[in-house]
Amino acid sequence: MIKFYHVYKSYSGGSFALTDINLTIQDGEFLFLVGPSGAGKSTLLKMIYMEELPTDGIVTVGRFTSAGINRKKILELRRHVGVIFQDFRLLRDRSILENVAFPLRISGESSELEMKERAAAALNEVGVYHRRHALPHELSGGEQQRVAIARAVVNKPFVLVADEPTGNLDPETSDDITALLKRMNAHGTSVLFATHKMDMVERSTERYLRVEHGQIVEDWVGSGRGATA
Amino acid sequence: MNVRTAKYLFGEGLQAVRRHPALSLSAVVAMTASLLVLGGLLIISANVHRIVDDLEGRKEVVVYLLPEPESSVRLRVEERLKDVPGVVGVRYISPEEAWDDFTAEMSGEGLLEEIGDNPLPPSFELKLANDRRDLASIEAIAGEVGAWEEVDEVAYGGAWVSRLDAFARQLAWLNLGVLLAVGLAVVAVVANTIRLTVLAKRDMIEVMKVVGASEWFIRTPFLYEGMIQTLGASLVALGTLYGITRGVSEQFGGISFLTLPQVAAFLGTALILGAAGSYLALRPVFKNYPV
Lengths: 229, 291
Known about the structure:
The structure holds two protein chains of two kinds.
Chain A: E1 2-10, E2 16-25, E3 30-34, H1 41-48, E4 56-61, E5 64-65, H2 71-78, E6 81-85, H3 96-107, H4 112-126, H5 141-153, E7 159-163, H6 171-186, E8 190-195, H7 198-202, E9 207-212, E10 215-221
Parallel strand pairs in A: 3-8, 3-9, 6-7, 7-8
Antiparallel strand pairs in A: 1-2, 1-4, 4-5, 9-10
Helix pairs in contact in A: 3-4, 3-5, 4-5, 5-6
Chain B: H1 3-19, H2 21-57, E1 61-65, H3 71-83, E2 87-93, H4 95-106, H5 111-115, E3 123-128, H6 135-146, E4 151-156, H7 158-200, H8 202-210, H9 215-252, H10 260-281
Antiparallel strand pairs in B: 1-3, 1-4, 2-3
Helix pairs in contact in B: 1-9, 2-7, 2-9, 7-9, 7-10, 9-10
């Protein structure tokens, strides 16, 4: 479970990125964060893997809490959170398989063979196993985002944080990626999906939070209007 | 850190050098120039030190006894001299031996006929410990021994000992100054080179941070990269200096290259400088990390 208790985030100069955020996300939940650019969605997501810590208030992610957390605990937390970015952030100079095995290498717990097997399984799950020896630039945008998702789930995180994962993709590929994230969610992983595309949320039947000026202005469930059959 | 991870990180450092050959080469060339200056000065000063040591080995303290002492007096003085702190060797020179030496040096000059009988007193030549060859220690020993009633006079090379000491001290300061200047230059070159690699790899660093890599996991390949570059530069510098030293020695003789421990110290220092440069280059990356 993820909880935000009266969370504020301000930067030097006094500008507020988040104001009094109160939020509970249940295990296994799929949640859209929707709002215009600069509304505070990314800051909110960064608090989940604690790249940002609250100026005031408390964030708890599973057994980790932001209050008094140390460096070691933050690094440990990040190994349980999968993060997906709009620009994929794959390592250009190594193969797709190596990219996906990368988080396993960092945790240092698996053997070389185990790492390759787990990375291959994750690639298989997202449907790009056949491109495992390619370099990132040889793949399409959609394929690269699938690889990024495989990298995010290879450590079996309990939550997936996706910051505009379809921002660089055409509508059809966006739908594919969204469907893939929903499939991951169906396996029990919570998914937080930030997007500025309101239409995507409207077509969905998932819970969504509308964020504006650093505040949650709407916590609702999508109507499914315009959803394709 | 387990062996597999350590191996992986070393491989990453090596690959960084291989993936950016032009960058690495320019760094190695710049560092080689600095290290050539350092190595050249070390060779010069090692040779000067050797010469100074030879001269210092000749720093003589001679204790002249009163004429014609009893042999028991001579033996007693010899024993007392051996007990003086800082004296590690005592050699007795009889008037006859002194005369033989003197005549050997003065032969053919017609002076000896004028002198007639041997006027030279018996004496002791003192060998001093290495750390007691400075002027103050020699003066202290001379003062102590000169006060003994059996001793007529203590002779030592006062002024030139003092000049030699001053020269050796100045050389040591010069060495230290150059070492600091060159050290800073090498650190700056490594830091700037690694900074460029960091820029090229900022995506990778971001990903590493997001997936929970420790600071040392991220740092280590860059550390190896800096160390590999300085190691390469110092080997090139040492090779060049070895060639130059041999060439000069064959032409003029008398110059020797660094000893094995000095070579090891040179390489060790270069590696430390490389690591320091890399460490500094990555400092901004870890400002407030992991938050």
